[in-house]
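Collaborator request, handled under Task 6.
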Amino acid sequence: MRTRKFKLLGVFALVSIFSLIYLSSPSKVDGILWVNGDITPTTKEQVPVVSDTGGKSETDAGGSMTESKTESSVDTNTDATSDTAAETTTDNVAESATDTPADSVTDNVVNTSSPPPQEHHQEQPSGETESEPKEQTAEAKTENADEEAESKAHTEERRKWLAEIQNKGSDTLEPKGNKIVLLTASDGKGHNGEIENLLQMVNENREDYCAFHGYTYQFTNITKFDSDDRPPVWSKIPAIQEAFELHPEAEWVWWLDTDSIIMTPSLDLAQHVLNPEAMKKRIAYDAPFKLPNGKESGYTVSRDLDVSNVDVVVSQDHNGVNAGSILFRRSDWTFAFLDMWVDPMYVQRRFDRYEQDALNHIIVNHPRIRSRVAVVPQRVINAFSVGDDRMGWMTGDLVVHFAGCWYVPVFLKSNAVVVDMLTELLGSRMNVTSDGKTFGPVARS
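Structure tokens returned to the collaborator:
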């Protein structure tokens, strides 16, 4: 009997010991570590945080919230689109997921999205108060107020400056004034942020030029033209169509990629290229139409070209037609051509340089379209930042086109001198003398 009692006591003791060990050990319930039924600051820090990588993140240039994307393409004509490294498509740049606008704004404007930062849930240590967060909030409010005041001051300065230079160009040849629209389009996304306030400075550079000559400046946010079944660089075409609709008085629309800077603002477009007499002198007669691979197509710019029928003015680079700077005249032919350019057949074909190669294909393969297109030397409307005498910008040229260079961080990091030059040029404004003449961008005083 006594032996049986000892056995029962032994079993009871063992059960009690195992029960105490089990109750004192940590267990995991619904992803939270519990110790004796109480959650502690130490154990809560160990809780794994799962972030939604498909969420939204703030982009740089436009400051808008955009869906994360994985496709990337950088084109010479948009940013990038246009925007948007020169003349080719680049995928998965600099360890970030990107998507072309183009251009440009795209040219080719590239969108960069990243997962949102992980949230760390921590209990507030005992004895702390909420005074520190309140002080941070007050400091943030002060900073926001200062930024708002600075923004208002800059807006007022811009208003006065544009009024001061309005119509100082005193252009005499037609077309002039509001018969010309300078169009910039972008989705405000991407690596534009590699240069601080890039889009703002690009807009101001063009606002200055348009104010001086009395042109109409149009900026379009191309996100409204986004389509899941085509790269955003194609949005430049509906942006051009919309510009004609918004400005019924306009005879010409000049599309210019966001990676271009107007360097000689004293040049008016009529005297430079659009007036029929000026156009006759500018056309690159007998120049071969190039294919996207740089080879000659077998066709040349005809000497019989009738400038009164010209509806498109464009230049070529070493890879054929470059749509980073292109002018369209209002006509039924132009409207039909724009519809043709964005036809799903061309969009779905997936040309290497998307809409630019499609444009090249149409011009080369359709003689009646070639009869409406004036090809001018590249430096007339689309000089590159580097190149030989036919291609590279020289003092006095209207525009310098950096061909997508600031959309790729790898390019920027290896070309700090270019970035410094761009920042200096974009941070400048026209020097207008008392007689109304301009001498190109100069440093702000």
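The cover message to the collaborator said: "The first helix runs from residue 2 to 24. Residues 225 and 238 are 7 Å apart (CA to CA). Please let us know whether this matches your experimental observations."
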